[in-house]
Structure formats: structure tokens, C-alpha cells
Amino acid sequence: MGRGPYARRCDQCREAKKKCDQAKPSCERCTRLALKCTGANVQRYKFVQSQFEAAQEQFALTLRRNPSPEYMVVAQSLLSIIETPGLPYDITCSGRFFSQFPQRLDSSRTLTSAVSAMVETHRSLHNRQVTRTALTHHNSAVGAVRSILETPSEAYSVQTACAIYLIMICQELLYGPVAPTTQHIRMLLMILHKANVEGWLQEFDTSMIESFLPVSTFEMSLNPDLKPDHGFYDLLTQYYGRPHNDKEIVCDSIEMVAFAQMPRFNSNPKKYHAQISSAYELLKSEPVPFQNDFNRPFTETAPLKNPINITYSDMLLLGAYTTRLAGGALLNRLLRKVDGCTIQLVAEMNFYCDEIVRASQLVFNFGPLAMGLMPQNMSVVLASSEDGASKLNLETAMLGYFNDGRGMIWVEKGRKMRRKMDDPSLWQDIDQRSYHLPARQKMIMPS
């Protein structure tokens, strides 16, 4: 192939547009002017046949470094949900948590599958109809997580923890409280344990830890098959009860630590009576977030078709407050087992029942978002209550908020919780228990 103009000059002569005799080690002009000669070794505008092929190869390599269309589509779908206000399942109430995923999708196919399932679940429920597409994506995400758990080097990672958490959210929205979560939470606990022990906990964004811990702690308080280790309490102290934008973050450390201690308290209420009493008094001393203005966010004329009438900060406060009511109810039940049904304890238990019904009347006007905020806490209070008018009102409220049969499912879950809590054989050896995995997963247990 022909070539264009080119020059053989040192840099000094080329910049001055002078002829160069190309002498070595320094040309005559550079020697005469005492300049540093670079030598006549530069060729410009020379075209070689292989140059086009080299450019083609470089272009192909550049494409491989960019995210694939699959990642881009999933990321854009997630962003469209995050950036759309007023949706009935407003996931922006989870703070920064969901915004962490778009930049992580390219590094984990498992996380991509879980985010895709979350997007389809959100889309189907926004249309008020569970679709086959949402169920298919959920099953694919579960399969992806099962596959990665077979690889010890990849099982413990931030991406795996996030994928498991998203699958739990999808299960709750698609199937309600009947979907099992024990295995998911067990794996979450193991990942957090390993990250804390091996020193890579900083790879988790704070919003992730603040999302994982309440779910795990809540399940622990009612599930004798789960037991926290000592490091778990350190995490609660580290991540909860800190100031955040001049306010406390969603869940305070008092109720979180109380929930985490619940398995031990259930194992022997008499032995831990002093600790239970101390936690109960501390919980009661916490101020009520709404005080005398509890009913402020809604009025009788507020149209239910446009439920976004409650501020974001009020939503966070309601979440923390109803969690506190559930924690107080559990501790109250344990004290009644030791001290008996005193007038004060029964009156306080009735207060928890009545108060969570009031809170639910406020929250359920916020639309389907309340599905992830209220039913679990209401079930816990129901499980802790004694027969009477307040308990009956609570059951009636739970049944009245759902028209698809889920109200009865949550009521039954509360009754099942009560049977578990009242069965001493389930909690006898709780102090000696540790994590137990199916044989297939024992190879990836933390050391």
C-alpha cells in the first residue's frame, strides 16, 4: 500500500521546520544551537497494511469491557422504578439500598437475575396482578443463587448477600408470609459473619447492613433454628442508634438488640428475668415519635385513591415505632410468664394491641407499601397478646386490611408464632446451638 508524506527529522528541526542532516548522536543544527537532539528516528504519516486490522482488534476488545445489553436493560429498568415517585410499592423508602445495584450488575450474573426478578415483581404488583413473567424471573433468581452456593470461592460476597435479600423481598410480595425464609436468612448470617471475621465488611454499603440486620434479627427472635454469634451483637451496636441527618435511623439499637436476645430470653425467662425487665423498661422509656399529633398525616377527607399523603420521614418513624411496639409486646409476654398477668402488664399489653391498630390505620392508607411494613409487626403483637377485646380488635383489623385471603394467613402466622414461643422444647439448648446447614452446604460453612 502506498504511503503519505513523512519526515525524517529530529524533534527540534521538525518543530522549527528546518532541514536536518540526521547526524548522530546530534545533528549539525542542534550542535550549533546547543539544543538537545532527539535523533532522526521519528516517522510520521506512514500507513501500513496491518494498521486497519490492529484497530479492528482494539475496537473489539473495547466492546468486551462495556456492560452487555442484558445488564444495561436490567439497570435501566431498576432506575426507572427508583426514580418514579408515587408508585404503590415505593421502594425508595428503603433509602440508598436499591441505588447500589446498577453499578454492581456487571460483576455478578446472580445479582442481575435477582434484580430482574425484583423489577418484574414490582411491575406485576404495580398492575395489581401477579404475572407468570414475575414468577418465572423469581424461579430463575433462586436457581442462580443455588448454583453460586455450590462454588465456595463465589458464595461469600456482597453480591450474593444482596441477591438473597432481593429474593426474600420477591417471595414476600409474591407469596405472602407462607414463603419460607429460614435458609435465606441463615446464609445471610453466614456471609455477614465471614465478612466480619475476615475483615471485608467494609465492602458492604451501610444501607445494605441496615437492611440485612433488621430482617435477620426479627426472624431470629421467633425462630429457634437461628442463633446469633457474638459478632452479630457487635454489628447491631455499630450500625444502629447513630445520628442520621439529625434523626435516628429507621431501627434503633434498643429494639434490635432486644429482638436478637429473644431466643435466649425464651430459653429461660426466669434465668434472664433481670435482663428482660431492664430491656422492657428501656424500651418503654423511648419517646413516642408522634406524641399528641399521632393522627396528623391523614384526615377523614383524605382520598384513598391518592394515598401518597404521608411524608417520607413519617413513614420511617412509623416503621421504627411499630417495630418498637412488637418488641415491647414480646418482652411483656416474657414478663407475664414469670411475674404473672399483673394488672400493669395486662394493661400495657392491651396498649400495644390498640396502638398498633391505630398505627396500621394510618399506614395502610399508604397503599400496598404497608404490606412490607405492618403485617409482620401486627402478627408479633397478636402472638404476644392475651385473650380479650384488644386482641379481638387486632385480629379484626388484620382480617379487614386484606381482601385476598392474606389477612387470615397473617393471623395464622401469629398463632403459629405463639405456639412456637410457648413450646419450651424448642428453646432449651439455644445457648449451645450454632449454625446448621444441609449436607450439601457444609463445605462452605465459615471457619
From TrEMBL:
PROSITE patterns: ZN2_CY6_FUNGAL_2. Keywords: Nucleus. Residues 9-38 form the Zn(2)-C6 fungal-type domain. InterPro entries: Osmoadaptation_assoc, Zn2-C6_fun-type_DNA-bd_sf, Zn2Cys6_DnaBD. It holds the Pfam family Zn_clus. It comes from the Eukaryota. GO terms for molecular function: DNA-binding transcription factor activity, RNA polymerase II-specific; zinc ion binding. PANTHER family: TRANSCRIPTION FACTOR DOMAIN-CONTAINING PROTEIN-RELATED, ZN(2)-C6 FUNGAL-TYPE DOMAIN-CONTAINING PROTEIN-RELATED. This is Fungal transcriptional regulatory N-terminal.
